[in-house]
Each structure stands twice: as C-alpha cells, then as structure tokens.
Fold this protein.
Amino acid sequence: MQVLFDQLMNGLTAGAEIALIAAGLSLMFGVLEIVNFAHGELYMLGAIFLYIAESSLGFPYRSAAVLSVATMLPFGALFYAVVVHRILNRGWQVQLVATLAVSVLLVNLVIVVLGAPAKLVPSPLMTTYVIGGMRISEQRILVLITAVIAFVLLFCFFRFAKLGKAMRAVAQNREAASVVGIQTERVGLAAVVASCLLAGVAGATIAPLYNVQPSMGTAVIVKAFAAVIMGGFGNVTGAIVSAVVLGLVEAFSIAYIASDYADLVVFGVMILVLVVRPQGVFGRVVRR
Amino acid sequence: MMTAIVRRQFALAIAAVLGFSIWGGTAVAQSSAPQVVKVGLSSPFSTSEAQMGQDSLHGVQLAISQLKTLNPKVTYDVVQADDECTPSGGASAFGNLIDVQKVDVILGSACSGPTLGGMPLLPRAMIPAITFGSTNPAITQQAGVGGNKYMWRMNIDDSIIGTTFSKYIASAGVKTVAFLGYNNDFGRGAQAVYAVDLPQSGVKLIDSEYYPLDASDLRPQLTKIFSLHPDALLVFGEAKDCALLARQLHELGQRAKVFSRSACYDTEALKLAGDPNLLNGFVEATYWVGTPSQPMIAAYQQMFKVYPPYNAALAYYGMMVIDQAVRAGGPTAAGIERGLSAVNWRSAIGPIKFNDHNQAHPDLFLVTVQNGKPVLLKEVPTQ
C-alpha cells in the first residue's frame, strides 16, 4: 500500500511538472494555432536565467526565481516580434521549420555562451517532509503548489479577465474577433508572452530539482506534446489534466510493469486515446 | 668561340643540373616535412551527453600539443563528428568522418551505442577505429579475428570489469543487489554481464530498472527498487546521473550502499551533487582515475584550468595509442591498422597491448568517495 501511495505522489509531482510546460504549449496553439517546437527551449531558458541570476549576479534563490520569470516577459515579446508575428499567416510547414530553427538556435546559443556541462541551481528549499509515509522535498511541494496556483489563475483569467475572454474569442475565430473590434495582434502578443511566462515559471521552480543543461527542454517537450495532443490541441485544461494522467501512468508503469517499457506505455496510452477520441479527451469536433 | 652545337650541349647540361638540383631539393624538403595524420573524433557533442564530446576533444588536443614535441615527424590534425551517443548517430558520425572528412583513423566513440552503430562501416573503408570509452562486451566479440578487424578497443569492457567488481561486491558482505542503468547499449550490455557475474560471486540480482539518457526524475525507479529491500544498488550512467541519484537518494531518505559505473568519483559528479558528501561511501569500478604517476593531469590543468574529467584522460591516452601505432606502422590508415597490432606500450593506466580480438587490458581502478573526495582503493591488473 505504501508503494502505491509513494508512486501516486511520484506520478502527481512528475505530472505537475509536465503540466506547467504543456499549459504554455497548449495556450499558444489555442490562440494562434501555432505548434511551438521551441517551447521546451523556453523552459530551458527559464532555468538558465535562474542559473545566471544565482551564479553570476549573486541573487538568492527567491529573488533569482522572480527575476528569471520576469526576464521571460521581454523575451516573449521579442519572440513574438521576431518570429511568431512573421509566421502567423504562413503555412504550417513554415511555422514548423521556424520554431524548430528557434529551438536549435537557443540550444546552441546556450552551449556557446555557457558551455555544454550540466549545472546545479542551488535552492534553500531542500528540507524534506514526510507525507503519508513518503518523503518529499520543499522544492517539489513548491512545484505542486505553483502548478495549482498557475492553473487556477489561468482559469480565472480566461473566464473573467477581458484579455482572457479576448483570447478565447481569437481562438474560436480570429476573423470574427477582429471584426468585433478585438485587436488580434495584441492578443497574440499576450498569448506568446503568457506562454513564455508559464515556461519561465516551470524553469524557475523545477530547475533546482534536477540538472540544468542545454538539452533539458528536449527531454520533457515530447511528453508535453503528448499531454497537449491527448487533452485536445488548444485546450489548456485538457493539457493540464492529461499531463497529470501521463505522469501517473509513467510512475505506475515503472512500478508495476517495467521501467524500460515506461515510455512505450505512456505513448501507447496517448495513441489509444486518439484512436478512441481523435479530438482528444477534452477537445471538441469543430466543423470548419 | 663556341659553336652552335656546343652551346646547345652546354645549355642542356646546365638544364639537367638545375633540374636534378630542384628535384633533389624537393625530395629533401618532402622527406623533412612532417607527415599529416587526420584523426576523426567521434563523440557526443549535442544532447544531454554533450559534455563527453567536449571533454574528449580537450584530451585529444592536449595529446596533440604534446606530440608536436614527442613526435615532430608527424602532424596530427583532429576533426570531430557528433554521434549523439546513439547507434544511428554513430553510423552517421563514422560515415561523415570516413566519406566527407576522409580521416586516416577514427578515435571513438566514447559511448557504446555509436561504436556498435558505426563499426560496420569500417571494413568497407579500410579505416581503423579505436574506442577509448565504450564498454559493451559485444564490441570485442565482434572485433578482431573472425570479425571486424578494423575496430579496436583501448579500455577494458564490462565483461572484464564485471568479474572483478562482482567479487568485490560479494566481499563487502552484500547478498542482494538491484541494478539501475541507462536504457541503451551501455546499460543493457552491463546488465547482461552482471546478471551472470553477480550470482557466480554469490550475490543475487533481485531487480533491474532502467532510465533514458535524458531522464531527470529517478524516484519512480528508486521507489520500486527500495520496496524490494536490496542490500546495495549497482548503478550505470554518467557523472551527472550519479549526482542526481545521490540527491534523490537523500530526498527519499535512503542510505543505500552504492556500487557504480557512473563516474561517481568524478569532479563533475561531486560538483553537481551540491554537497559532495552525499556521495560518501559510493564505490566505483573505473578504467581511469587520477593517480600521482600521470603527468597528463598537471598538463591538462595548465591547459584547461580544470582537473581532467575521465573522458578527457581516456581520449588523451587513446590519442597516444594512435601515435604508438603510427610509429610502428606508418602515418596512413593501412599503417595505423598494422601498427595497432604491434603496439606494446606501458601507459600510466596500465599495459596497452591488443589481443586477437583487438582488445587491450589496462588496469581496473576501484575508487571510493570519502569526505567528498575520491580515494583510490586498489588498482587491479586485468591482463
């Protein structure tokens, strides 16, 4: 029973990490219909900014985390202006190649500037607590709490905030939204910035748990994509729920099947969901 | 007064003398100019294993800088190809080095997968390759007599290490072990070795778990392993994975005995662990550790301002072996291939002499971590 509970906690925390990353990915697709293959590298950048803030600028973790997330704000604006804005009305092939190019550029830029070696980002939140017989660190609890707060804020934003409602309108029909006076370019910019901020929050909270290295985004983005696809492309709630489900599936498949088959099971579940419900669990069939 | 005929003969004689002197001078110039050997380094320069490639390149660069003085007759030129630490990456890297960069010899890969993926290309090209870090036993099984005669291995492999390490684990009073390793040729090849060697030493292998190269969260695997209450953990990975393991063992409150083939004593692991004392008691079986008898350590520190990581040291010795082969056989691919079979070199890490499966047998080092620092337990000859 203890093992079951322990793996449940493992799965929930892993799922929360994937969810923080998948939410931003789903947001950008939902509003702009752009699949951002560089999103994993945005998460990596958040972690790298945290590392720079601590190691080079000497900030303590809390300040460094706030600074690193805040840095993603102008970066997101830059990303929109230089890349996203130019590919908005281009075909999916151009969008794919452009975002992949950004991904390669960011990874190699970090390698050139900071080097390939993995880095450690220290955090004072290393005290462990025993919850239900399982030990879990403060940092991991922070990730869980941050994920919940971020998702509640996102929900409220889309439901109640004017900009959030505008994003939902643009996601439904860009032309119609423009006709009724919604400034779609500003909404697009806001969506990209929000996506980058979410990636930055993920990087700032998750980085102290693991090694920070240029390829860290590539490792996690595949599972984030699986969560987004499973949840229904463009459905942020669906992506979050699916990410948690995938985290649990991975933990339980390691525990009760075999660790070398974990990825097989995770992506097998994704494919199964798509076979049964091609639009994703939370997606809706839309006639264009 | 010269007649026309005499003038013509005189002119011809002068032309002949000039011609011979130019030809002779060129021949003399050519014989004194250094001969160039192009070495292709295959290692991961991207992905989560990118550090291995960077370290390997530094080791080779150090060796080449020293060889300028030690062997001035030969100029070594190193080029690199990224094998991503995967079999398909290895095939691509070896192909690039052979067909595009046209090297005389390949040094690498540091990873088992790329070596296994790239070595089938060697016989067609008749280019020798020497690995300095791959440990999957299949490489030796497929090399040399009856197999791929162009593939050579300088370092000891997991089948050589496994026997000694399993006996050491048994001597530590361990009765049950759980294995945790990379889900690739390195990890799986090692698991196959220890699945046989550990029971032969009286130790039961009760569980085997794997993780991908870019994994960061090992807690599901560790939770499963410790639910089975093994006496010890046997881990396979790289230095950064060992550091993650140490931190997550600490987070889970597990004070396990850890035996490793994961560079847990390496400066990178000690640094990334945050608190190097988290690695106290880990015992590593390795094919390189810094010992006082290795002048390359001080030279590396002078050149790169850091203590040499193990991949840098091994690549250094690999490059030195290539030089030994060039001295023995000549500065061409065919010469290096001949020369490798004649190499008989007492290096600072043990004897380098290849058997009929193109496998050398330098020493095995057992290293532990005490007070956050690596301490050599014993150096074991493997020949």
User: Anything to note?
Assistant: The longest helix of chain A spans residues 2-32. The beta strands of chain A are 128-131, 134-137.
